[in-house]
């Protein structure tokens, strides 16, 4: 019943849109610009992109186009 209600309200699709946006950004900003020799290099690059740039520094529309770091500094 709960899943049916989510699908009915469209909540399920709103969550998927955020995921699609993330993967579009990942591909455009990292994947399509580089080629790695090994899987380990690829994994390290993905980890660095997500934890070193995307999460803390990239501007997010949900935060008024501020990076999470800037948003937290302003809130403190």
From TrEMBL:
Pfam families: rve_2
Source domain of life: Bacteria
Domain spans labelled Integrase catalytic: 20-74
This protein's name: Integrase catalytic domain-containing protein
Species whose genome carries this gene: Iodidimonas muriae
